[in-house]
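Task card 7
Instruction: Convert sequence to structure tokens.
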Amino acid sequence: MKTTISKVSNYLNEEVTIGAWLANKRSSGKIAFLQLRDGTGFIQGVVVKSDVPEEVFQLAKNVTQETSLYVTGKVVEDTRSPFGYELQVTNVEVIHESVDYPITPKEHGTEFLMDHRHLWLRSKKQHAVMKIRNEIIRATYDFFNKEDFVKIDPPILTGSSAEGTTELFHTKYFEEEAYLSQSGQLYMEAAAMAFGKVFSFGPTFRAEKSKTRRHLIEFWMIEPEMAFTNHEESLKVQEEYVSYVVQSVLENCQLELGTLERDIEKLKNVKAPFPRISYDEAIELLKEKGFTDIEWGEDFGAPHETAIAESFDKPVFITNYPAAIKAFYMKPDPNRSEVVLCADLIAPEGYGEIIGGSQRIDDLELMEQRYEEHNLTGDAYKWYLELRKYGSVPHSGFGLGLERTVAWISGVEHVRETIPFPRLLNRLYP
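Output:
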């Protein structure tokens, strides 16, 4: 019976054949241990010299790393293995021999591994991170589908900036100037006016010359937008969504979390509701923690976010930032116009902001005023202004950065390991 490693539990004490690659091996005089992977998981194949023809045992002893194989054997329980099963091998057939595979079990430098990212993805830890990423994506679709959101795909090529910043990638669009999208949010607002509750999931691009462990040039965003929804209601959706994703990973990625040696007790605590502090309170907290130079009106950097997060054992919302340091479309607090109805969700353990969200301006006159203040008077933003002209409603939304979320949940230090092929300030290969 031909099967995959992930499904061998269905064939306990039966003989199966698996197409696999040799991740590693060790052997004594009479037994060879083959560490096999097939993309669905990892399993050990045990080849006993006395149980197989001599040519099979010699092949098993001499097979090289990352050679592709068909391995036949009996599935048996193995309580010593995190996976719980191993293969008592009866036959090995080489599909293609791998010679001088560059990533060996020894230590390699980060740049070497990044240059060989196309091969590094095969390793056990990188495999685990990608499986967790996949589960976060699966759980995202599950959550929003259950909550009656409609998936809408915004364009990647746009004629304007989503937030009026200069950190954009320019390109020629025939005779016009165009940009790679830095957010699908403006388009999701249009979609929300048509479908009520929507979400997008797609790549975004920031021409930000940053080398920190939290930054990528190309990354993926989940961006929900909700009509007839105020800021408080949006916060509840955000914390329920993040809780759902974390609990889904805990339930469905136990092997992967174990491979990464992730402290899951910290993740078990991630359940709604989340604590909230205002920007004002965050300033005071930072001063108490020794950041005496921070002044009201300044944005928070990574050290500030980490210090704030250390005071809580769950993700924490920082609400009501000054309008001057936030995007033009955020709705002012009706009781205090110098701050806006917004929040950043800060992950625990130093992983920083994973969500930014706000209630959007729905008043045409105020949005026209913002256009003038931010020099957005050209035709590129005309369509966005019309959303306030034809049946405007209160609406809110947010964006979650996938890679930062993967890094936090999996416990990986740098976001470059949370995306299959990272684009960094000095890296466009492979």
